[in-house]
Specification:
Layout (H helix, E strand, L loop, with lengths): L35 H13 L2 H33 L7 H47 L2 H6 L2 H43 L1 H7 L3 H38 L1 H6 L3 H27 L1 H25 L5 H42 L21 E8 L8 E8 L4 E5 L6 H8 L7 E6 L2 E2 L5 H6 L1 E4 L8 E2 H6 L7 H10 L3 H5 L8 E2 L8 H15 L3 E5 L7 H15 L3 E5 L11 E6 L2 E6 L1 H7 L2 H15 L1
Parallel strand pairs: 3-10, 3-11, 6-9, 9-10
Antiparallel strand pairs: 1-2, 1-4, 4-5, 7-8, 11-12
Length: about 625
């Protein structure tokens, strides 16, 4: 439905389970990771589904680690067994063996990288699919609370963030674990005391890592949230660019964007600076470890406790031991960003679907179209009623017009009829059955819409009409267009029905776009039809064509027409006059004029305005 700027579309956040408080001016919202371990387990559950790919990644990582660990060991043996004793006969053999080890290490590394990329892309593909499926199942009130740009940010930025992190982290985590364990084992086989000396820097590294990561998660969470807000602001202002220019709001819009952009920059600098500091700190600790090994190794070698080859091997293993710790620290910081993005994605995926806990979807049967509302009460916000004790009966095939001031509750009745929202109390029955006892898809399949703002999807004209019934043949599509008075202008286009349209309808006029939506509704062949000011924004000549198309569309169907121009609903069987959420008058056009009440005053006011214009 077209959103109205009135109480009809105000949604109580608490009803949807959201408690929000906007930040004070200049305040950066403090967003912390709610459950990092839980989020990691959810990501792991997605990874586990790609078992074969994950297994190949693990095996190739193990083989890469083995080759990497063998290198320093062979170098030490070469120094002690051949170089120091001037035995040149075995140096060539050891060199060839080292070459083979490093060659296979490179091959396994390539396999590891390739399969890890496949693993991350397969994982985020499924996450992205689940997120988009959830968007299809969420109720309309959810979308009333969020900007489109903010939701797009979750689908693009947050998912991409998870993808990039997985692509690097999966390998690094597995590799780091094996390298740590393998390095310790190799060092212990060479010298127990040198192994203990090498580990002197570990407590310092752990302490620094904890201190830094304590803050990075918070800043990465804030960064992702602010990025979503910036995307939402950009999307909203690009969509409304004409309005911005008409009212000369360019400078004010730039100021607002600059403020949001500055908040994002400030938080991003903090997140990236803290995260980036891990590398230099870890390098310093590794260099310190080198110094300790060189000093103590020299002393031990002088007293013949260890050999020169062992010292060289230890220097390599010390690097291989500290490097995984360094990588784990860096990956942990990257994980903070991924966790922040993943939490925003899982927040949506785990919401209750609109169609959960629904009744079995019934076989498609044509409704007669009898609609009854009994004592319906509804409010978007608690203690702010929008509809009060609304009751009426629409017989099959009748045209029911809804008229009244803006915000009176006309659109809300339609929102309840389509189950976009649920009644607070009372009943809505179609063909004698409560719609609350029906599957929502069953209800909506029987209802056709022609809205005030016609929506055109990117694709061909044929595809846009076929949206009304996806299994329709080309002949049925063209027949629907003919009945909607759209066939003539479509055939004049260069590619006819295969003309490609952009999301805003391309170069089609407002009236032509409206005729396409009518053709879409004709093709759907609904039992109940809803017309929401379908001719309010077109010229008089186009309005006549649209009205003729709508007359055919309404024939034999129960129709609900929301109208502001009362001249368009003179032929309605019943006119419901709604004011402040109540039906204040009911009857035909002539009957209501004779009553000389609310409707008569509205009608005379409009006639007077037309005479003046």
């Amino acid at each position: 439905m077209t959103r109205k700027h009135s109480h009809e579309n105000t949604v109580n956040m608490s009803q949807m389970g959201f408690q929000q408080r906007g930040p004070r001016p200049g305040e950066v919202p403090k967003v912390r990771s709610k459950n990092a371990k839980g989020t990691l387990m959810k990501i792991w559950n997605y990874l586990k589904k790609q078992r074969k790919t994950l297994l190949i990644v693990v095996i190739s990582t193990i083989l890469t680690s083995i080759c990497t660990l063998l290198g320093p060991f062979l170098i030490g043996k070469t120094i002690d067994g051949f170089i120091l004793i001037n035995k040149s006969s075995g140096i060539l053999k050891m060199g060839m063996l080292l070459l083979i080890v490093y060659f296979f290490g490179s091959v396994f590394t390539w396999i590891q990288q390739f399969m890890a990329s496949s693993l991350s892309q397969l994982t985020v593909q499924e996450m992205r699919q689940d997120l988009f499926e959830k968007f299809q199942d969420l109720p309309i009130p959810f979308f009333d609370q969020r900007t489109h740009g903010e939701l797009m940010s979750r689908t693009t930025n947050d998912i991409t963030n998870v993808s990039n992190t997985l692509n690097q982290t999966v390998i690094q985590l597995i590799s780091s674990v094996f390298m740590l364990v393998g390095s310790v084992i190799m060092m212990l086989t060479l010298s127990f005391w040198m192994t203990l000396i090498t580990m002197l820097t570990i407590p310092t590294i752990v302490f620094i890592t904890k201190k830094i990561t304590k803050y990075t998660r918070q800043y990465f969470s804030e960064q992702q949230k602010l990025l979503g807000e910036v995307n939402g602001f950009v999307q909203e202002n690009i969509s409304g660019l004409k309005v911005i220019k008409v009212f000369g709001r360019e400078e004010k819009t730039l100021e607002e964007f600059q403020e949001k952009n500055e908040k994002l920059r400030s938080v991003s600098v903090k997140a990236q600076s803290l995260s980036g500091s891990m590398g230099p700190i870890m390098n310093s600790m590794r260099n310190l470890s080198f110094v300790i090994i060189a000093v103590f190794g020299g002393v031990f070698a002088y007293h013949d406790v260890i050999t020169i080859g062992v010292i060289v091997s230890f220097l390599h293993y010390s690097n291989q031991f500290s490097q995984p710790i360094n990588q784990l620290a860096n990956q942990y910081n990257m994980l903070q960003s991924a966790i922040a993005g993943a939490e925003r994605v899982f927040e949506i995926i785990e919401m209750d679907s609109e169609l959960e806990k629904e009744y079995e979807q019934e076989p498609m049967q044509k409704w007669h179209g009898e609609v009854v509302l009994e004592n319906v009460h509804f409010s978007y916000e608690e203690n702010v009623p929008v509809l009060k004790n609304v009751s009426f009966h629409a017989s099959p095939g009748q045209m029911i017009a809804l008229v009244g001031p803006t915000g009176s509750g006309k659109t809300t009745i339609i929102q309840l009829l389509t189950r976009f929202y649920e009644v607070d109390s009372g009943k809505i029955l179609i063909d004698g059955k409560e719609i609350q006892q029906m599957d929502k898809r069953t209800v909506r399949q029987q209802i056709g819409f022609v809205l005030q703002d016609p929506y055109i999807f990117s694709g061909t004209i044929r595809d846009n009409i076929r949206y009304g019934r996806l299994n329709a043949t080309d002949e049925e599509i063209e027949e629907a267009a003919r009945l909607a008075y759209a066939d003539s202008f479509i055939r004049k286009l260069p590619a006819g029905y295969d003309t490609h349209l952009s999301g805003d309808g391309g170069k089609l006029s407002q009236g032509q776009r409206q005729l396409l939506t009518i053709a879409r509704a004709v093709l759907a062949n609904p039992s109940i039809l809803i017309l929401d000011e379908a001719t309010s924004s077109v010229d008089t000549r186009t309005e006549l064509h649209i009205q003729e198309a709508m007359k055919y569309l309404m024939k034999g169907r129960t129709s609900f027409v929301i109208a502001h121009r009362l001249s368009t609903i003179r032929e309605a069987d019943v006119i419901l006059v709604i004011n402040e959420g109540e039906i204040v008058e009911k009857g035909s056009h002539d009957e209501l004029l004779e009553q000389k009440g609310f409707y008569a005053n509205l009608y005379k006011t409009q006639l007077l305005q037309q005479d003046i214009s």
